[in-house]
């Protein structure tokens, strides 16, 4: 009979509570050691994981972030508990993989996923305003495609093992993290790479990171928390449900930052951010369009992977490859500004996205 | 006459978009919508209510749902 119970998390009060909890958790994770204004960033942390397993060798961004593993496994646990674990897939897999690559590259030109857009705003980083404007514009372009009947096709039920694949990959990564913990002063522990300086060297203790990840994964699965969906649903059908979660995250992170003295308003010298406004805007525009076409922000893709959705799983794997490409090819930005080939990446990425959009419209 | 909309296998926002489209096309005052996951069920039900329709949700096998929507 439990299925007949209303899902309390999928109510306005529920999504506001979830957004608030994520905001508070983010500020506390930053206190516990995570990088400033990057307490939880799905793009940055995916990039760090790509570095930890050696897909790229940018020395300052290598750490196997337990939060990301927790997101998938927490969502997986929630889905199992309420019988929503449902292996499915087969909806344009390769397109989703490419969307993951492009989304990650765009996010790394800006330096953050939509969650970090919010967290950077909550930390006082004015550059994130351009990221937010880009994100909204990218999602808005996505809604134009949806109005023209854009679809990546229906997904089909798949085998249990297909649905377990991404949760199992996360378990495997967690085993590696436990077997090969960071050793002070060492850039390598077993097969894993670690940063000795830079954002990759700032991290909360394993237990805290994992617990926060699992908790947020659980809550986000129940409430469908999605930052891209928040913007999309308001633009597309004036539906504010997800937006309440988005705003709650902003308000709570801002509140806690002010209380903890982590709020530093300004544009210059913000933590792990650059001031090239046009590329902050364009990078996030490209990412926002890719999220919209793929049907979720990077966080939501992780949570859907936990539910057994292998289409989302491919987006996640694509984003790890995108992170590797972004650093290996000099596409990712640094605090000094965009990478040597960041502009080319945004131009080519936008052309590919528009091509994917146009060719998948039914009208 | 009851109109049936099969949104199974589609991911958000498509089930909601299709449902709103069908509700706005005047011919059907009685709409049956099939979805195959809980999130779509919640989203479509929320959208239907915001369009001023009444919704009855029925869980069927394999985590699928049938939403019976009526213009109220």
Figure out the total of helices of chain A: 14
In total, the number of strands of chain B is 4
CATH architecture grouping of chain B: 2-Layer Sandwich
Which regions of chain A contain 5 or more consecutive residues with pLDDT less than 50? none
Helix-strand pattern of chain B:
EHEHEE
Average the pLDDT over all residues of chain B and give the rounded result.
89
Helical content band of chain A: 55-70%
Structural class given helices, strands, pairing of chain B?
alpha+beta
Structural commentary:
The complex is a heterodimer of chains A (363) and B (72). Chain A is built from 14 helices and four strands. Chain A is mainly alpha-helical and 363 residues long. Chain A has one domain. In chain A, the strands form two sheets. Chain A has a two-stranded antiparallel sheet with strand order 1-2. Chain A has a two-stranded antiparallel sheet with strand order 3-4. The longest helix of chain A is centred in the N-terminal third of the chain and has 21 residues, at 12-32. Chain A is globular. Chain B has 72 residues and is of the alpha+beta class. Chain B has a single domain, classed as TusA-like domain (Translation Initiation Factor IF3). In chain B, 33% of the residues lie in helices and 33% in strands. Chain B contains two helices and four strands. Chain B has a four-stranded mixed sheet, covered by helices on one side. In chain B, strand 3 and strand 4 form a beta hairpin. In chain B, helix 1 runs parallel beside helix 2 (38-50). The two termini of chain B are 16 Å apart. Chain A binds chain B through residues 3, 7, 10, 82-84, 86, 88, 91, 146-147, 151-152, 154-157, 224, 229, 232-233, 236-239, 241, 295-296, 311, and chain B through 8-14, 16-17, 20, 36-39, 42-43, 46-47, 50, 59, 62-63.
